[in-house]
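Form 7-S
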Amino acid sequence: MRVAKVERFGGPEVLMAAEMPDPVAGPGQVVVRVTAADVLFVETVVRRGEGGGYFPVKPPYVPGGAVAGQVISVAKGVEPSWIGQRVVAGMAGGGYAQQAIALVADLVPIPDGLGMDEAVALFHDGRTALGLLEATGAHAGESVLVTAAAGGLGILLVQRARSSGAHVVAAARGQAKLRLVRELGAETVVDYSEPDWTTRVREATGGTGPDVVFDGAGGQIGRAAFEITRPGGRFSAHGTASGAFADVDPKEAERRGIRPRHRTSPVHLRRREETGRPGPVRRRLRADQAGDRPTVLAGTRR
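Output:
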């Protein structure tokens, strides 16, 4: 089979086409013929060699943490009815390939009417978005600020927070991105390349600042978002689009009664799912298959 392999750390040019043997499912595994592979911002960070503190990956390796496709073979002892099913699944690398190995426990059937491209695009960012909404307990009547709002995770947070009844303020850079998040339901949009953007956020939230901040930008933008978070609010520092996580002083957060949540990642959320409790993506897909309208399960609130 053909794969896309990272031969050395660097830019996109280090991704090279290569041939590898077709995989064979081991105990508890299946082989998926890959139709689409997830591509995450964090994977570009790892590929450049900048993720060693969190992702100890060394070349050569085949990236790709999630795929969508059709199960073509199963290991002995695995239910054969999986063969032929359309699924999406996470894995510890190896997704940039024509075929990929996945644990049967990680398979999520793709509901009828949902394309494979869309399913895999939602797999990590969708799980992270639902997990963040649960953890922060964002709910109807609250004001929510989303930075990096036009990114893969940001657009899901905007839509889900809005559907929960929250007042959503979306922050991004440039008119094209602002138009996108406005179309997706943000009631207020601000361009954080403008010097008064935090003032506009305060005005949009009645002068108190947002109750909940989902910071996907990090860096100075994230720090500025933390500074205008309402006392007693919740702040999620999960993004590094600016090159680093937001610098949040725990003592300052404690003084202001703000509950910070740091460095949430798909890996962290996956570990929560491995406890045996159905994770948010599985609950969402089960609800869709049952025809029910899923709700966000609230975490602790103020």
